[in-house]
Amino acid sequence: MAYGIDFRKRVLAYVEEGHLERKKRVSKSRKIPLDQLKEFVELHPDAFLREIADHFSCSIPSVWAALKKVNITF
Predict the structure, then answer these.
(1) How far apart are the C-alpha atoms of 49 and 74, rounded to whole Å?
(2) What span, in angstroms and rounded, lies between the C-alpha atoms of 18 and 3?
(3) 5-63 per-position pLDDT tens digit
(4) How many Å separate Cα 23 from the centre of its chain?
(5) Who's near 63: CB < 8 A, 6+ residues apart?
(6) Half-sphere exposure of 74 toward its Cβ, with a 13 Å CA cutoff?
(7) Sequence-separated contacts (24+) of 65-70 with Cβ below 8 Å
(8) Measuring CA to CA, how many Å separate 63 from each of 19, 26, 35, 45, 70?
(9) d(CA 15, CA 31)
């Protein structure tokens, strides 16, 4: 009976570390501060995503995701 590669990796990790706990993920800090984004949108309600992205020096998908987080839709 052969074991899968993922199972072998888990066994080797257990042997090396002595436990099977999940590794903590390191999250990156946000490029767009959500409070500043909300304030910008309140001051410029007719701004396009491209204009907001230019203001915060980031991409359009980043702006879209941040707006979604603060529950602002266009």
Answers:
(1) 9
(2) 20
(3) 888 888 888 888 887 777 788 877 778 999 999 999 999 999 999 999 999 999 999 99
(4) 18
(5) 32, 37, 49, 52, 53, 56
(6) 14
(7) 66/30, 66/32, 66/34, 66/37, 67/37, 67/41, 69/34, 70/34, 70/37, 70/38
(8) 40, 22, 13, 14, 11
(9) 39
CB 37 within 8 A of CB 67: yes
Contact call for residues 6 and 14 (beta carbons, < 8 A): no
User: Whose structure tokens read 């529950």?
Assistant: 71
Could you tell me the two tokens for 39? 């304030």
| Residue 8 tokens, joined | 């072998």
C-beta separation of 72 from 40 below 8 A: no
